[in-house]
Amino acid sequence: EVYFKNLSKQKQKEVMEKNGNNRKLRVCVATCNRADYSKLAPIMFGIKAEPQFFELDVVVLGSHLIDDYGNTYRMIEQDDFDIHTRLHTIVRGEDEAAMVESVGLALVKLPDVLNRLKPDIMIVHGDRFDALALATSAALMNIRILHIEGGEVSGTIDDSIRHAITKLAHYHVCCTRSAEQHLIAMCEDHDRILLAGCPSYDKLLSAKNKDYMSIIRMWLGEDVKTRDYIVALQHPVTTDIKHSIKMFELTLDALISFNKRTLVLFPNVDAGDKEMVRVMRKKGIEHHPNFRAVKHVPFDQFIQLVAHAGCMIGNSSCGVREVGAFGTPVINLGTRQTGRETGENVLHVRDADTQDKILHALQLQFGKQYPCSKIYGDGNAVPRILKFLKSIDLKEPLQKKFCFPPVKDNISQDIDHILETQSALAVDLGGTNLRVAIVSMKGEIVKKYTQLNPKTYEDRLELILKMCVEAASEAVNVNCRILGVGISTGGRVNPREGIVLHSTKLIQEWSSVDLRTPISDALHLPVWVDNDGNCAALAERKFGHGKGIENFVTLITGTGIGGGIIHQHELIHGSSFCAAELGHIVVSLDGPECLCGSQGCIEAYASGIALQREAKKLHDEDLLLVEGMSMKKEEVVSAAHLIQAAKLGNTKADSILRTAGTALGLGVVNILHTMNPSLVILSGVLASHYVNVVKDVINRQALSSVKTVDVVVSNLADPALLGAASLVLDYTTRRIY
What we know:
This protein is α/β, with parallel strands linked by helices. It folds into 4 domains: about 200 residues, Rossmann fold; about 160 residues, Rossmann fold (3-Layer(aba) Sandwich), CATH 3.40.50; about 130 residues, ATPase, nucleotide binding domain (Nucleotidyltransferase, domain 5); about 170 residues, Nucleotidyltransferase, domain 5. It is about 40% helix and about 20% strand. Helix 2 crosses helix 15 and helix 10 crosses helix 14.
């Protein structure tokens, strides 16, 4: 340990010598508001504590200097920091234009300050519009920028500002591993990224054991107990001001109804903040006995308040970041923090459009205690940041470099390339056949290949690869550009990983099979995999009766019975990828045995296998064949013979078909009562034989409110292949256009 400490000191000494005559690093820290000061203050204390290495200049601007927001520059003075410059940069106003004008005013005033200070490096925090002005000024004046908390994702204009500052900054201090990966993905130099954790956690993790009751009583009253009050902090969302004002109004209504002592902090300086304050005053929050409304709470005291609160509510980043360190329950409202990493203490109410939703969230969260989370830091960020600052070599070129990933040479835009048809390779793994097709964007099957499906895993995978390679080669000849491979297969599928989890008994040796990796590796194309029923639903959504329909169900009637559910234009997979196993809806408690092991499933009545079973029984009793029918001695009895017999007047065969159709109809009624779709599509070879019986059952058995549902037969010739293709074409369409 001593050796490594001495080695570190030697390295720092070498860097200082490189920077010239042991010159100190002149660091300018610019703070714009109470929130960023809570993150910058620990770094400022660290810099101040090492005067042999650093000179600190503090610039204060933004809402720090506004009385309406508590004149928070005073807490910087109370922390014994010398403020070099105060810049009044906020243009008063209530719309987006005021924020733009504030950025412009800061850009006008900052050059003179930076010319006088001549810092070696400027530390900029976060994603506020004031910070964008700071980073722009420093970058254009050739001053190195260290950006704190880059690479994070939230859900508003803050994302765009944060990433813009990232592109201007020369060095980056991030708080989480995901943020680090985002910065690398944004082509930032890995050597200039420090994963340090959040500086505020250095103070947070040592704060909870301090005396807190006096602080709670000071802000909330003498009679308040720990875990029996709420802290509320909500800001306007500048990309949807009107909705965020309405949400704040609903939040206050819910808090009034909840009837607990509540500390409400005024919002940030943003477009819409004045309207939020007016809402507070309109509801009498400042004079309500249960509420304390304040412009600002010093960070040290704020830590104690949230650490011992029964709940925090609002849309502040503090709720999803810092409060997790104490395990305090948090209710995050709206979209302002969408994308942030959170601990299990955070309950998201994304669409907080009613008072009841917010009230219910309060009832769920208030008074709970969650495990403490250290997603954003371990309490050692500042030492890491100081060490990082000491390692900066001022003699390195100022111009930052971007680490772009390698890309292939551009394909010249000749006429053949332009006229290529964008297409997908579709693979359908059935119980009998294995089919591969080239499918165009319009749903045209350009070329199709069919082989018997092998019985073993190795042979099957080898044949899939062989057929796909052959089809991909042929695609060039038919002027098709393959965008990816879509695979439709029986059984339960994890589409996220491209893995067949469990197969039906119709396809042997087909469980826990990774299809995506070997096919993607062989063809160098993206691969999507899904259940055949889901693929049929996707085919209808893109090419068939389901096009433009918000809610519909597809039922496949073939060898087995399957299906897919489209709800609000999206396919439902379920929590364990088992949604829409419609063939296994039970319609009779003592019905025939199903291949799944249960009794009375739709599939046990209405599938091709079930009809074949009944046809064999009739044939064995010499009750199948009627006048006009004949069978060869070696011919296998099938469902087709049963259907033919029914058409030629065989009453027993007709009765079996009606029973099968009735079972299917009862299953559809259950689906109508559960999902309430506007359309039911029957697909597969048996669909046309069942459709009228299904409609009759709906008229007899369904609730009147769902009887108006449309039941139609699919007009798609090959839904499994078209559905597999749509896995590819839907994704690439979204990505390209």
